[in-house]
Specification:
By secondary structure, the protein is an alpha/beta fold. It has helices at 5-22, 34-45, 63-69, 73-83, 92-100, 125-134, 156-169, 184-190, 205-210, 225-232, 245-248, 263-274, 277-294, 297-312; strands at 27-30, 51-55, 86-89, 108-110, 143-147, 174-178, 195-199, 213-216, 237-240, 255-258. The chain is elongated and about 65 Å long.
């Protein structure tokens, strides 16, 4: 944020000098906010360099709807429609929102988020027990995991609220919450027995590999990387039907889709997976397979490279 017009002018000049020095062939902005505005301005400064914009979220707190609520948002969307060569959409829902504000289908390319399937990979039962020991998790307990920012839209409170009922049937069950955020203190006050907060973590892979089920009860997402990492790790996923979840999850095949803010259905999905090791294994294997096929980083990188190559022809 600039504190004065002079600072803004100085920063713009420095940006212009950097652009002239680097002479990028493609300008790729992430989010339809200031990054997209900056990229379209840079296009003008560089005399027409192609611009690609990736929209990252949908719904009320997503890129399109939030921009429409901002000052001059409608005007900025009009500029983007003219000046952005390709919009990368990571979910069909985001694509529908862009179409709704006038972005034609031929300027949209569906390229979802990707995941490192070598790093996020299932472990053998013996290796899983070793990881649990290193993380101070009980060796035999059922573990459901949430990974992500502890923000209101993630609805982690729903998971905490159902946990006493889950533990009535599975007394040793653990709800493992990995991440930090503005809701952390409130959630810790709400939590009872069997809820473990792991805090900030630079590498969530061991926690996912130690768990049995992944749960994401958000009311808004783009395409959750946390979900893809969990599925790549061989976990069946229980996720709300928002954002790109429906593009990835085939209900009853590699996970479950549930309505947002439907706490009874969330609880039943957790209990259903906890009741059957065979079901968890089958859904987890299918989850891993779909990520390897469609969301592995090399697959996504090739598709993005093709967009760049097409724009440079």
């Amino acid at each position: 944020m600039f504190s004065s017009t002079s600072q803004a002018f100085t920063s713009l000049k420095a940006f212009q000098i950097l652009l002239q020095k680097l002479r990028p062939q493609i300008l790729h902005a992430h989010e339809v906010f200031s990054p997209a505005t900056t990229a379209t301005a840079a296009r003008w400064l560089l005399g027409g360099t192609p611009v690609v914009v990736t929209a990252h979220r949908s719904g009320p707190i997503g890129d399109v709807q939030r921009l429409q609520q901002k000052l001059f948002g409608a005007r900025r969307l009009q500029i983007f429609q003219r000046q952005v060569d390709k919009f990368i959409v990571i979910s069909r829902e985001i694509g529908a929102e862009l179409s709704g504000v006038g972005v034609p289908a031929e300027r949209q390319v569906f390229i979802p988020n990707g995941v490192d399937t070598r790093h996020f990979a299932p472990l053998t039962p013996a290796a899983k027990q070793q990881v649990r020991q290193s993380l101070n998790l009980p060796s035999e307990a059922l573990v459901a995991i949430f990974t992500g920012r502890l923000a209101a839209e993630k609805r982690v409170n729903h998971l905490i609220n159902i946990w006493p009922t889950v533990r009535q049937q599975h007394p040793d069950a653990v709800l493992l919450i990995v991440g930090t955020g503005p809701e952390e203190a409130k959630l810790k006050q709400l939590a009872g027995a069997g809820v473990v907060f792991a805090g900030r973590c630079d590498d969530v892979a061991p926690y996912l590999q130690a768990a049995d089920v992944f749960v994401l009860p958000s009311v808004a997402e783009g395409l959750s990387v946390a979900m893809l990492e969990a599925m790549s790790s061989g976990l069946p996923a229980i996720v709300t039907q928002v954002g790109g979840a429906a593009d990835v999850i085939s209900p009853g095949v590699n996970g479950y889709l549930i309505p947002p803010d439907d706490v009874p259905t969330l609880q039943q999905a957790v209990l259903t997976l906890f009741q059957s090791a065979e079901l968890r294994a089958r859904l987890g294997q299918a989850a891993r397979a779909v990520v390897e096929r469609d969301y592995a980083l090399p697959v996504i990188a090739r598709r993005l490279r093709q967009v760049y190559d097409d724009l440079l022809r």
